[in-house]
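Hypothesis: this fold can be encoded by more than one sequence.
Test: take the structure tokens below, design a sequence, compare later.
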């Protein structure tokens, strides 16, 4: 009976349920898209390219491990955790090769070297020589020894293999793009200064061009020199004897390597060994998808509850009549629940299907932005849409129960009287829930002020915004009535429209609060998304700018500044000090810390991290300086020993020489350049700080030419003032922020749709009210003016509350991350946010208002409900 009545109600009141349908559909699409990202991080495949012909690959362990044993009540509990390294780990060649030789089923063991090797082609300029263009159309380029070409396998299609140190074989895809052939010269930037090579051959993969990389092959001795890890290799490719079972071979190889740090991979496990960035991106994608999905879910619940509340309010008289004719609370709940399930099933199914291409688009944008490597293939399965559908159904059912709780509680005799006038007091349960949420939001803001890492602060930041928005939703009617009292004088001065708007604000506070909530959420969330990264980035740049004592900074367009270039500057007349800076990430235990390596000689003349304890005098390869944050977390002081794991997994024990304050600008750990450069994939300096009385032109002339580079090449190194370099960092910061904006853009778009949806529903239900005003003598223009005044009042309340929430959250974030209550807020950007919110509010009010004023007032007033 109730199901049939629910179907009839949905069919006859399609307009009233349209808002709930749109909110649920958008929520399902958003959850599906975020779920796709999350699943890609968990289950996305990484197909191998270079190791296609090697069914078994032996590589170094790319993780840091920690095992803890706890004894409790006679039971032993062992926990094992592992975290990925930031750089590539290497294997000792002789020991592993000796163990693999003679293993049953092993045919050939091929050592592999993989290292930075970018081809340089002339960019062209008016001077004729041209600045170099690095790489192959944005694809990563790696160098290898020619003997490992069989791992793909590569076959020569032209020329011959490399024999001498300056010989080079290039892959066919790059040869065609660059117009190169055997006999041509090519300059390659690797781990040393760029060097000119003679192309002796062109090779092509047997099964088609590689999709995600360019391969350059060197002679064995030159490859070992450029790899810069003597006696070590990246991996071993194991080729089986004919007829050998791959799984059996993998097990035999694993037994032979038992007791070493090597790991054995076969099948789909070979891809993550080859593409370390894709394997590392899994963790980031899981975090990103989880954060987006969690925020989307909370926003969706908040929006859908508000939408269903409005929908039930529009039918309050109808439901009251059912109660008056003896419908039981259970029957009313059943009716609302069935209606919600019907709308949720259709909206959830539609949204879940729409979320599949939306997830593909979002994944593609992340790949284009560089946040996700193209080698990590998107996972496609029915799980995200099914989860989105289930969540949508549960959300719709819960929203209907929350929205209809008042009407099912009142006695039948009071139902119609209750329906005529909005309750003057807020329900006790709603008041308690609002206060609990407000206290919870305040606690989150307080916690945010003591969090000092971005990974910990980011989820708490957005959670605090949503929780405070939920508090606004619960306490909204009280806020609207309080604001109406404050606006009484100004609104009455605007004429009859203002007086009517004030009366509606005071008498229909619950309806107005339903419109205030999404506006507050939109403003608060948008401001937080737009200003949280600039707050952190500006503080870091300020510390870096204040800590640079050098008057010149060298920045390379390519992978970095070679050590030979810095050495040339040190020997130049008029140069006081040259400090090379190379960056990495290390782990102390399992915790990750940003670190840098700096040249110790003349360090204090180019760099000032604001040392508060200890001294940089005597800083050497066995020393480390730490930020105050790291010192507090790790319990360190000058003279302490810090045990850490470098980027490639090498263990080190260093003596703390100094503690400094500018950790945001320079990283939490600072070590000697030589200590760090030997353990990173790219040992070239990210920047070089130069203290000199020579002019920019004189320094540029010193670094204009790379030693050993091809004729006509310029170095591609820019000589910048610290201020100019700071501007370059600001542009990079903006580029990185775009990824975060994209990540939260869908949530903001959903919230904007909710604003329009809620305001439109709020206006469209008032057609009878507008007709009665017209019959009482109000003109069409006066009614529209009243609507605009109401919309502006709601906009003022919503944006003020949202701005207050954002300011509180951003201030706490700034205190925790930078130590100062100074969030970065760009006035023009903030004005644009408010302007967009105002445009949405006025449009969502004006268009339905004009439609509601279309019918004749008499026909509306005499029509049956």
């Amino acid at each position: 009976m109730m199901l049939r009545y629910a179907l009839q109600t949905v069919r006859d009141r399609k307009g009233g349920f349209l808002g709930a349908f749109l909110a649920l559909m958008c929520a399902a699409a958003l959850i599906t898209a975020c779920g796709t990202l999350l699943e890609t991080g968990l289950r996305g495949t990484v197909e191998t390219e270079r190791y296609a012909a090697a069914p078994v690959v032996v590589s170094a362990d790319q993780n840091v491990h920690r095992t803890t044993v706890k004894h409790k009540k006679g039971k032993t509990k062992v926990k094992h955790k592992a975290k990925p390294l930031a750089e590539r780990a290497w294997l000792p060649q002789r020991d592993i090769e000796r163990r693999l030789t003679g293993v049953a089923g092993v045919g050939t063991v091929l050592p592999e070297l993989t290292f930075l090797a970018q081809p340089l082609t002339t960019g062209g300029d008016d001077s004729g020589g041209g600045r170099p263009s690095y790489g192959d159309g944005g694809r990563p380029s790696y160098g290898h020894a020619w003997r490992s070409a069989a791992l793909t396998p590569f076959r020569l299609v032209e020329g011959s293999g490399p024999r001498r140190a300056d010989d080079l074989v290039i892959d066919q895809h790059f040869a065609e793009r660059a117009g190169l052939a055997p006999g041509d010269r090519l300059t390659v930037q690797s781990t040393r200064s760029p060097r000119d090579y003679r192309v002796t051959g062109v090779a092509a993969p047997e099964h088609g061009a590689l999709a995600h990389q360019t391969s350059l092959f060197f002679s064995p001795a030159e490859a070992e020199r450029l790899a810069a890890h003597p006696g070590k290799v990246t991996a071993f490719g194991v080729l089986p004897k004919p007829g050998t079972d791959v799984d059996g071979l993998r097990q035999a190889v694993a037994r032979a390597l038992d007791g070493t740090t090597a790991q054995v991979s076969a099948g789909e496990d070979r891809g993550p060994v080859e593409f370390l960035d894709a394997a590392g991106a899994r963790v980031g994608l899981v975090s990103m998808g989880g954060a987006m999905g969690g925020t989307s879910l909370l926003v969706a619940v908040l929006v859908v509850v508000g939408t269903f509340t409005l929908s039930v309010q529009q039918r309050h008289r109808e439901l009251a009549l059912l109660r008056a004719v003896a419908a039981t609370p259970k029957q009313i709940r059943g009716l609302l629940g069935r209606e919600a399930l019907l709308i949720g099933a259709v909206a959830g199914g539609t949204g879940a299907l729409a979320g599949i291409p939306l997830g593909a688009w979002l994944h593609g944008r992340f790949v284009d932005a560089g946040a996700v490597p193209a080698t990590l293939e998107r996972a496609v399965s029915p799980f995200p849409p099914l989860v989105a559908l289930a969540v949508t159904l549960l959300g719709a059912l819960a929203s209907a129960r929350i929205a209809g709780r008042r009407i099912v509680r009142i006695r039948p005799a009071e139902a119609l009287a209750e329906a005529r006038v909005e309750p003057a007091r807020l329900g006790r349960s709603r008041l308690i829930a609002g206060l609990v949420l407000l206290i919870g939001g305040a606690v989150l803001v307080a916690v945010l002020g003591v969090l000092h890492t971005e990974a910990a602060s980011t989820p708490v930041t957005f959670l605090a915004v949503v929780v405070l928005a939920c508090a606004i939703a619960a306490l909204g009617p009280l806020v609207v009535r309080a604001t109406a009292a404050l606006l009484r004088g100004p609104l009455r001065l605007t004429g009859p429209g203002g007086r009517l708007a004030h009366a509606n604000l005071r008498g229909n506070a619950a309806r107005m609060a339903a419109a205030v909530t999404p506006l507050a959420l939109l403003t608060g969330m948008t401001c937080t998304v737009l200003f949280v990264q600039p707050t952190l980035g500006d503080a870091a740049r300020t510390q870096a700018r204040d800590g640079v004592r050098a008057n010149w900074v060298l920045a390379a367009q390519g992978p970095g500044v070679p050590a030979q270039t810095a050495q040339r500057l040190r020997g130049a007349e008029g140069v006081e000090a040259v400090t090379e800076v190379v960056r990495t990430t290390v782990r102390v235990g399992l915790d990750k810390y940003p670190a840098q390596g700096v040249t110790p000689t003349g360090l204090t003349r180019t760099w000032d991290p604001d040392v508060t304890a200890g001294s940089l005098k005597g800083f050497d390869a066995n020393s480390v300086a730490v930020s105050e944050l790291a010192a507090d977390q790790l319990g360190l002081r000058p003279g302490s020993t810090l045990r850490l794991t470098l980027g490639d997994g090498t263990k080190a024990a260093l003596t703390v020489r100094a503690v400094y304050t500018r950790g945001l600008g320079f990283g939490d750990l600072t070590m000697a350049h030589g200590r760090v450069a030997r353990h990173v994939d790219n040992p070239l300096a990210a920047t070089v700080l130069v203290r000199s009385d020579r002019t920019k032109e004189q320094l540029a002339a010193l670094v204009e030419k790379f030693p050993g580079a091809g004729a006509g090449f310029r170095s591609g190194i820019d000589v910048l003032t610290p201020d100019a370099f700071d501007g370059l960092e600001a542009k990079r910061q903006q580029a990185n922020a775009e990824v975060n904006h994209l990540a939260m853009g869908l949530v903001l778009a959903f919230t904007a749709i909710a604003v329009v949806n809620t305001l439109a529903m709020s206006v469209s239900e008032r057609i009878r009210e507008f007709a009665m005003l017209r019959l009482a003598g109000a003109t069409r223009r006066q009614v529209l003016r009243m609507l605009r005044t109401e919309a502006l009042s709601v906009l003022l309340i919503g944006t003020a509350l949202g701005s207050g929430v954002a300011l509180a959250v951003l201030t706490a974030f700034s205190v925790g991350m930078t130590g100062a209550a100074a969030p970065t807020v760009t006035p023009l950007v903030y004005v644009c946010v408010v302007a967009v919110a105002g445009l949405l509010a006025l449009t969502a009010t004006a268009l339905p208002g004009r439609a509601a004023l279309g019918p004749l007032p008499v026909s509306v007033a005499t029509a049956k409900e």
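Residues 124-129 have pLDDT under 50 and may be disordered. The first strand starts at residue 56 and ends at 60.
Hypothesis status: open.
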